Amino acid sequence: MSNGQGKDFLSTPWYALSNRQDPQSKREPLGLLDMGSNSIRLVIYEPRFPWPRVYLNEKATAALGHGLAATGRLAPKNQAIALDALKRFSALTRAVGVRRVDAVATAAVRDAENGAAFVSEAEKVFGYAIKVAPGPQEAQWGIKGVISGAPEADGVFADMGGGSLQVGLIDPFNTAERQSFPMGALRLMEQCQGDTQKAASTIKKALRRLDWLERGKDKTLYLVGGAWRAIALTHMRDTGYPLHMVHGYNLKVDKFKDWLEMLKGASEKDLKSLPIRQERRRPTLPTAAAGILELIAATGVSRIQFSAFGIRQGIMFDQVFDTRIWSQPDQLYHCAATSLFREGNRYGEDVREALQNWIPWQLIDEGVPSAAAKETALIMSDVGWDYHTERRASDVVLDVLHTQDLPLSHKDRVFVALVLTTRHGGNYEDTLDKSLRHLLREREIKAAYNLGLILRFAYKASGAALSILENSRLIIRSDTLELSINSSIQSLATRGLKDNLGKLSKRLGMAKYHLHTKN
Fold this sequence. Notes:
alpha/beta; six-stranded mixed β-sheet; 46% helix; elongated
């Protein structure tokens, strides 16, 4: 992604790209209300600089889109459920101290004949203005949400809610290739009376109008929306996939299509036999599967990736960041990891640069799966130092694998987890399940192991003092591992340090080691 700006812009540090630049200022929590066709969700964000963290996430299933295909109106019963939820949400925002809430209503309210009247009543109950988002704007927010969760995303975005389908090309600066259709999973199921083939034909006919979808050929289709998340979880359980986290779940199309075809044609009896966690999603899954298959056919993508980041994250990060950051994936990774794990790092925010200069990357770079994995491993390298000594190596694995807001692929998560469990003295064969390690190639496992060993030595050698790292460096000279330290800190060059250097060289497979003091 690029907006055509020059090199000076691309080297702009992440903290200059935030609209909230003072990390010491006392900011109030931020609220966001997403009023969808299936559920109404309130999210309150903790004003953590520069990456807001979820403080509260609560939803109510109002099913505002139920019956809309037949009547064109929001049903009184569902309106009552929604208004009741808004009373609670209003009380919660005030109790937490939220004064600003960005409230957005999407397809069901947008398309209903009585949508405007409902919004007027909802605003009285909730106490905040509610914006009815146009379809293309909803798509634009969704695309920015996907990018915030997968900063190097390239391909096609699609979001199937209960009442609408948004599609667009992944580009935060181009608003032309965006489209919204009134054909969400719930609405299509009602409109086509459960006829999945008819629903598929409806989707196919709509997508045929978008010739720009062909630009996704051989790229990735990023999927957002509750029904598609349910498909991802069902596929994980049905196939025995080891990491039950929707975000970042990535599949080859040719391996996924047959399973989708099975789901599309599944009878009620077949659906009952599948390991579907959310019972209420079960009836809509064949229609949702048909939607994915039609998008695959229209775009020619080679991979599918599910995203837990969507419209809500897009709205929030549009408020938090300067527009320029959307063209800098490395800065987005840095913002996320730094903010989420700041408290666990004794070195502070300068640790990444210090380690970047200290580590002999020729031992590691060939096996690093992505720049994001490398960036995150360095920023998180001290997380867990204050955990119980018997739990550090295992608990830090859980931090990496299951922190929802961390914008990493599954492979990157496992790589970073392996680095950190090794950095804390753990045996990755004990702390990281074999089924998870299978997500990495052998060279990636070796690189993660080597990086973990080097980080462990770095923290021991420096005593968690950044100035010591900055005045020393680990170097490879032919078959020798050399620790070079400035004369200003030569008193640190003890026999114990040399012994630890020798142990590291042996574990890295180096024949010799040398402790060198330079003037």
